[in-house]
Write a structure and sequence with these properties.
Structural class: alpha+beta
Shape: elongated
Order of helices and strands: EEHHH
Distance between the termini: 86 Å
Number of strands: 2
Length: 155
């Protein structure tokens, strides 16, 4: 069984003009293994998307106990979860109907998911470095305060 996925490469020379279809096209031929891989990708995308939405709702609902950043993180998880669910649906449709537009849309949703996840990782790393820096500076100040031999700590 062979499935063929075709999509045209679109280009936009300037940002204010709509994309133009170029003469290039890209063809993928999917054999049974390729179709199975795409089907598994759709299944895992659906699972991870649902889990992101569930955790996003939990984070968003925790605004009462924690703070606004957890609400924001919850909303972001819901957004990326819906992108993956959308991609999973388009992948399944592209496989069953041999629709290249659906396949292209699925790839765009997966790209968007990866970009948002990467941005979240970068923000997380920056936040961790910032918190560790503040803790380190506070620790040095606290150590300096308690190691001052001229201060009497007795009551």
């Amino acid at each position: 069984i062979h499935a063929e996925v075709n999509f045209l490469i679109m280009s936009s020379p300037e940002s204010n003009h709509p994309p133009e279809i170029s003469e290039q096209s890209l063809h993928y031929k999917l054999d049974g293994v390729g179709q199975e891989t795409m089907s598994k990708l759709a299944g895992w995308s659906k699972f991870v998307g649902i889990m992101n939405i569930i955790f996003g709702v939990c984070y968003a609902a925790s605004i009462i106990l924690l703070s606004i950043p957890t609400f924001i993180m919850g909303v972001i998880l819901i957004i990326i979860g819906t992108k993956l669910l959308n991609a999973a649906g388009h992948l399944r449709y592209a496989l069953t109907m041999k629709d290249s537009n659906s396949f292209s849309h699925a790839l765009e949703q997966i790209r968007s998911f990866m970009a948002l996840t990467g941005i979240l990782y970068i923000i997380g790393i920056v936040a961790i470095v910032l918190v560790l820096s503040i803790v380190f500076i506070f620790g040095i100040a606290l150590f300096d305060f308690f190691s001052d031999p001229g201060f009497d700590y007795t009551i």
